[in-house]
Write a structure and sequence with these properties.
Length: 411
């Protein structure tokens, strides 16, 4: 029985059916073949916290297979050689991937180009020379990138960045540090944001520019991998730029107007994380329902106890609402609406609802819910993180309130 009163366009439905087949053909067999490597943290990570080379190669294999199948670049603008599908397709596809893969088959996350790790609308802003250098390999999934915006003293207030790009002949030299840069430990390129006009930056009137930097550039270093929740390794890096030279053709977008690109990336991240939260929440809810129908206690299936099923019903209500909010805001954005309030509401609500769904699923499973084998705790960790990433829930509520007070009260 359908839960939606309107149809997802046939083109998007067909693509998602294809992604589902791709996951069964390319993702699940890789996880089965490399089960120990992909689940044992002592094998997954090197001593410095990076993924071991074979794991990085598996990520690359998935990206390249997905690119050959046409899924990896399906939402990249046609002007860059992509499929040109919009944000509704982006949302629906990511929700499908996370609902089908959960955290058990986590290589599935490399089926579709993530806006900060691969080709996306962000790359429309690079120069023609840069396109010729990076685009073919990026579109084919052979290389990846990362997005260097956050700094130790500039997180939610990203305009407070201190990294600077000082004029040097006809180019610049970049000095500074970045933190929380996802995919940095294995990225081939980084888009880094730096102050180019200190006075304008102080007035928050521009003065920040973006540059495309190869990660083998002299002066660039992934200083350390950030470990979260006691994990042996991670995918977040602390970056150092020590006089990294950049040329005019490495400028991304317009000089002094790079913060606009940063905000574009964050908006894409909010769509992505809304879909991620809904998908993982639904995956966890379905696992909990299956378990409740099998597990017996005190002579009955635990599905017969309201104390078990009512919290799951609550999560079903919340995830359904989050799903509808995500579909709605993606459609608004595809129509050219700014949808600032709606995107903030969707992301904040979805990540909170998804997190609660994971917690309730773990509670339903009892002690088994905490085991590595079920992967619920891995998803719980992911959803806890995205209650902060790409705009904390508090910042999003602040944005919603500002829009309401400014007269944007249509709900």
């Amino acid at each position: 029985m359908a839960a939606l009163a309107f149809d997802i366009p046939d083109e998007i439905t067909a693509v998602c059916d294809g992604i589902s087949r791709f996951i069964r053909a390319e993702i699940i067999p890789r996880h089965d073949k490399h089960h120990d490597l992909l689940t044992d943290p002592h094998l997954l990570y090197a001593r410095d916290g990076r993924y071991v080379p074979r794991v990085v190669e598996l990520m690359r294999e998935v990206r390249m297979a997905a690119a050959r199948a046409g899924y990896y670049q399906m939402c990249v603008p046609e002007a860059l050689g992509g499929g040109g599908l919009g944000l509704l397709a982006y949302f629906v596809a990511w929700e499908q991937i996370y609902r089908q893969c959960g955290m058990q088959y986590w290589l599935g996350a490399y089926t579709l180009s993530h806006w900060a790790f691969g080709p996306s609308v962000v790359l429309r802003e690079v120069t023609d020379t840069a396109r010729q250098t990076i685009l073919a390999d990026m579109m084919a999934g052979r290389t990846s990138m990362c997005f260097g915006l956050s700094e130790p003293g500039a997180g939610s207030d990203a305009a407070m960045i201190k990294t600077r790009a000082e004029p040097d002949g006809n180019g610049w030299r970049i000095h500074g540090r970045k933190i929380w840069t996802t995919n940095a430990p294995q990225a081939d390129w980084v888009i880094v944001f730096a102050v180019t006009d200190p006075e304008r930056a102080r007035r928050k009137a521009g003065g920040i520019s973006a540059f495309l930097v190869p990660t083998d550039a002299p002066g660039f270093q992934v200083e350390s991998v950030i470990r979260l929740f006691g994990h042996a390794g991670g995918n977040e890096g602390q970056l150092v730029f020590d006089g990294v030279r950049v040329e005019p053709d490495q400028l991304v977008g317009t000089l002094h107007d790079g913060f606009r690109i940063g905000l574009l990336g964050v908006s894409l991240g909010r769509i992505y994380n809304t879909a991620r939260a809904v998908g993982l929440g639904r995956w966890a809810l379905e696992k909990a329902l299956d378990y409740a129908k099998q597990r017996e206690a005190f002579g009955h299936k635990i599905a017969e106890y309201q104390g078990v099923t009512f919290p799951l019903a609550e999560s079903a209500m919340e995830l359904h609402a989050a799903h509808l909010m995500g579909l709605n805001v993606a459609t608004l954005l595809d129509r050219g609406e700014r949808a600032i309030k709606e995107l903030s509401m969707a992301k904040a609500y979805a990540v909170e609802a998804g997190f609660r769904a994971l917690d309730r699923a773990m509670q339903t499973h009892g002690a088994m819910g905490f085991t590595n084998e079920l992967h619920l705790t891995h998803a719980w960790h992911d959803l806890r993180v995205i209650n902060v990433a790409d705009g904390t829930n508090e910042i999003l509520r602040r944005t919603i309130a500002q829009r309401l007070l400014a007269g944007d009260t249509d709900l």
